[in-house]
Amino acid sequence: MAALRTAIAATLVLGLAACAVSSTGAADDEKTSGAKGDDQFGNSNTPGGGGFDNGSGRALSPTLCDGKCQDFPLDPLVDPDSPTPVPLNAPSLFGAADNFSGPGPCVLEPQLGSGDQRGALFPRNWLRPRFRYEPSGGENLFQIRLSSELEQNDLVVYTTATSWALPREIWSGLGKHVLDHPITVTIRALNSSNPGKPSGVRGTFTIAPVDARGKLVYWATTSSEVQPGTSKLVGFDVGDEAVIDALTVPQAGERGILAQGGRELRGRNDDPKGVPAGAVQCIGCHVSTPDGDAVAFTDHWPWNTVLASVEEGSVGQRPSYVSPGAERLLNQPWLGMQTFSMGHWSDGDRIVVTSYSPRNAQGVGFTDSTPYPSRKDGLLWIDLATTSTFDARPEQGDVQQLLNQQIGAALGSALGVIALDGETRSAAAPSFSHDGARIVYTSAEATQDGRLSAGREADLHLVPWNARKGGAVTPVSGAAQAGVAEYYPSFSADDELIAFTRVGSPDGQALYYRPDGEVFVVPAEGGEATRLFANDPPACSGERSPGVINSWPKWSPAVTVVPPVTMELGRTRTFYFLIFSSARKYPGSFQLPRTQYSPPDTRSSQLYMTALVRYQNGELESYPALYLWNQDPKTSNLTPAWDTFKIPKVPGPM
Questions:
Q1: What's the 3-state SS for 54-74?
Q2: What is the mean pLDDT of residues 283-298?
Q3: CATH number of 215-565+573-643
Q4: Which H helix or E strand runs over 134?
Q5: Helix (H, G, I), strand (E, B) or coil at 28
Q6: Mean pLDDT for the chain?
Q7: Of 360, 414, 336, 357, nearest to 382 (Cα)?
Q8: Is the C-alpha dihedral spanning 518, 522, 528, 533 positive or negative?
């Protein structure tokens, strides 16, 4: 069996050709930000170079070692960061490799597979694994053992810490040699003062034969209170072990933002936070522009939209393609989540779609009233390069009336309402397909000022783009179940799948930050929805889902198709990666200070990544979640976006 598996692996690495579908529709060499050259696995990212590059379809060609790989050292390692010294006789205390009994430590990172249960699936270039575990009682000395039939030696580590990260050079070697093949992890524990028989646990994880692509930018907050320092966007590249501030409130700066009535700058008379009048007050839900240069995000009340660069050298600035007229249109009150498509991202066709709450007979403009309750919310497109101008002065008359007349006159050219024929409810939280052909959105009984509100009936509906005109809406079969709230949809990079958040028993409470939220995936054409294994924390942690606030799923910007190479691996597989947030326990978890804006549950959240594998017949394999241990545990991290962001490079280890 070992020889057969080695032969399969050899065939795989020699014969595997992979091709990726990018969310931008561009060749991966063009869309991937960062410097070219060798990656951490020694493979060329230079166009036309050799090695592994799933974006441009080049063959996987790591070095073969025929079951005698030397990535694991012969001698045991002693963790130099152990909080207390590792006893010199540690090997003899543990004895033979199979000398242990249950239940063993609770392994929290990564989730390990056993029997029919899959373990975590790592992209080949992911953040190196960190092993984190909780002793079952009184143990203070631990042995971590990694083994593979493709490796000549076992990796053995001794530590007195409850977490240990695999060294970079070992992770790099495994990414060259041990792909699509389970790596067995055994973690044993004992009390060095009273050893006895060690307790232990054993399971597996796997490295996928593909890379993940793009960069991640997420909302980091320390409070629901709106202050310049309580919210920001934070980012990193795949594999980075640290993060950077991608955009802060002061960087976004003064934008001439108007109050909801349109007559004066927001905050001129009533802003207690020390932010200049007309300036950005808060950075919230956000999405990337298709080229990765900028983000669109929701500001504070009255929920205007801001586009700001995240590219080094121009962070916070308005992108050059956003005209003054478009910025004024984005300044309208009660706009909801934004979405873009590469299919409509070129000169003459640079569009943002947003949900919005109507405010007058034409549905657009400025108003002194408040949308409580919202009237029927809809979807609005805005031409970011419009040459229309919206400029009214007090000496000309009522500023609000003049602005609204100008905006109304531009309907159909600078902005327009997307027809939702057959829709009987409000529309919110849209996601534009990457090919620009359709929009999936949340059809909700309850919305408030362009956003989702109380947890009542909410389903996913599709509407065609139809050259900005919209058309007949259709429910997404499998994500339009009566009595269930399905919301926050997101198209995969190939537009084949839709990820979304589901609440099984809506109870009238707000859908935002629901403890009972879970992440599901459904075919974009409709079908059976798949509940992701990643919703579930490790069983030994004592936490359960629903109950840990799983939400805001977003796909990576590329999927990778891997053709069959042997009878044993005889089915074409498509690899997807997905990021989401969850409030399950993590080192440093905390409760956010409660304010008037706080949700009922104030547990801090962090980001998790998961993999899915889709077969030609539509079957989906779902894998456990991977905690991103590079993120700051002192901020609550939410609403992630994973795209081709051109954020500055994160400093790496020297």
A1: CCCCEECCCCCCCCCECCCCC
A2: 94
A3: 2.120.10.30
A4: strand 130-134
A5: helix
A6: 88
A7: 414
A8: negative
Q: Give the pLDDT band of residue 291 (cuts 50, 70, 90).
A: very high
Q: What is the pLDDT of residues 87-137, one digit of tens each?
A: 999 999 999 999 999 899 999 999 999 988 999 999 999 999 999 999 988
Do you find a cis peptide bond into 373, omega within 30 degrees of 0?
yes
Per-residue confidence (pLDDT) for residue 215, from 0 to 100: 97
Tell me the backbone φ, ψ of residue 69, rounded to 5 degrees: -65, 145
Nearest residue to 126 via CA among 218, 211, 32: 211
Q: Record the tokens describing residue 128, joined without a space.
A: 């190196």
Given a contact cutoff of 8 angstroms between Cβ atoms, the answer to whether 359 and 366 are in contact is yes
pLDDT the model gives residue 21: 61
Q: Report the alpha-carbon distance of residue 279 to residue 635 in Å, rounded.
A: 24
Q: Measured between alpha carbons, how far is 69 from 571 in angstroms, rounded to an integer? A: 27
* Higher per-residue confidence, 292 vs 41: 292
Average pLDDT over residues 177-186: 95
Instruction: List the domain boundaries for the chain.
Output: 2-207, 215-565+573-643
Three-class HEC string of 200-262: EEEEEEEECCCCCCCEEEEEEECCCCCCCCCEEEEEEECCCCCCEEEEEHHHHCECCCECCCC
Q: Match 């079957």 to its residue by tokens.
A: 619
DSSP 418: P
pLDDT at 506 > cutoff 90: no
| Under 8 Å between Cβ of 298 and 281 | no
Question: Sorting pLDDT into bands at 50, 70 and 90, what band is 608?
Answer: very high
Phi, psi of 379 (to 5 degrees): -115, 140
Q: What is the pLDDT of residue 269?
A: 62
Confidence at residue 62, expressed as pLDDT on a 0 to 100 scale: 52
2-207 and 215-565+573-643: same fold?
no
**Cα gap 57→50, rounded to integer Å:** 11
Task: Report the C-alpha gap between 607 and 628 in whole angstroms.
Answer: 6
Q: Return d(Cα 173, Cα 105) in angstroms, integer.
A: 27
Q: How confident is the model at residue 42 (pLDDT cuts 50, 70, 90)?
A: very low
Q: Which residues, in sequence order, are CB contacts of 349 under 8 Å at separation 6+?
A: none
CB atoms within 10 A of CB 55: 24
Give the separation between CA 331 and CA 303, rounded to whole angstroms.
Answer: 8
Q: How confident is the model at residue 220 (pLDDT cuts 50, 70, 90)?
A: very high
Count of CB atoms situated within 10 Å of the CB of 51: 18
Q: 2-207, superfamily in CATH? A: Immunoglobulins (2.60.40.10)
DSSP letter (8 states) at residue 550: -
The yes-or-no verdict on residue 29 having pLDDT over 60 is no
Secondary structure class of 173 (helix, strand, coil): helix
SS3 83: coil
Q: Which residue has the tokens 């080695």?
A: 6
Number of neighbours of residue 600 by Cβ within 10 angstroms:
10
